[in-house]
Design goal:
3 helices
């Protein structure tokens, strides 16, 4: 159980330190996956496939930004709690 907590903490720490990199990697993987999926749909025109891939990646990026904001908020509140505990 302690190992899973430390893994989650290390992931959170990495995301806090590399917010833009994590969002960018998620966007890149989202657009690549969406293009790969859309290319398997033979009935669509190429322009529609590209537009769908961009829309999927955009939605995934918004979700990633919301997640990064939540991690940042949690990190700041945890840091503030630690500072209050140390000063008391």
């Amino acid at each position: 159980m302690a190992e899973s907590t430390s893994t989650a903490a290390s992931i959170r720490k990495w995301v806090v330190e590399h917010k833009l990199r994590s969002v960018g990697c998620l966007w890149l993987s989202g657009i690549a996956g969406s293009i790969a999926y859309n290319w398997s749909q033979p009935a669509m025109k190429t322009s529609v496939k590209i537009i769908h891939a961009r829309l999927h990646a955009q939605a995934l990026t918004l979700a990633a930004l919301a997640g990064a904001a939540a991690v940042e908020y949690y990190d700041r509140s945890a840091r503030k709690t630690d500072e209050l505990a140390r000063s008391a």
